């Protein structure tokens, strides 16, 4: 890319909508949420928009699944 193209891209990013910004990371970002299942806790892997991808028995298993699918895990507070 040349410098002019880089400047055009940066200018577009400066004016990106919140929805557009959200969509940038959607395919690559995930988070883990513990959920109660009867009398035990299991762990769900969710995409950035909250869609549940999978539910597994342990947090380690969910983290491994995220890595295998090239997902970046983020912390939610």
Order of helices and strands: HHEEEHE
Strand % is 25-35%
Low-confidence segments, given as residue ranges, are: none
Distance between the termini: 38 Å
For the biggest β-sheet, the strand order reads: 3-2-1-4
Helix residue percentage = 25-40%
Mean pLDDT: 85
Describe this structure in words.
The chain is 39% helix and 31% strand. The protein is elongated, with a radius of gyration of 17 Å. The longest helix has 12 residues, at 3-14. The termini are far apart. It contains three helices and four strands; from the N terminus they run H-H-E-E-E-H-E. Strand 2 (40-47) and strand 3 (52-56) form a beta hairpin. It has 77 residues and is an alpha+beta fold. It has helices spanning 3-14, 18-25, 59-68, and strands at residues 29-37, 40-47, 52-56, 72-73. Strands 3-2-1-4 form a four-stranded mixed beta sheet, covered by helices on one side. It has one domain (3-73).
């Amino acid at each position: 890319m040349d410098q002019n193209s880089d400047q055009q891209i940066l200018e577009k990013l400066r004016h990106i909508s919140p929805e557009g910004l959200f969509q940038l990371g959607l395919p690559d970002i995930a988070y883990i949420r513990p959920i109660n299942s009867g009398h035990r806790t299991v762990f769900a892997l969710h995409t950035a928009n909250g869609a549940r991808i999978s539910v597994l028995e342990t947090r380690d298993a969910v983290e491994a699944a995220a890595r295998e699918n090239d997902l970046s895990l983020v912390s939610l507070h």
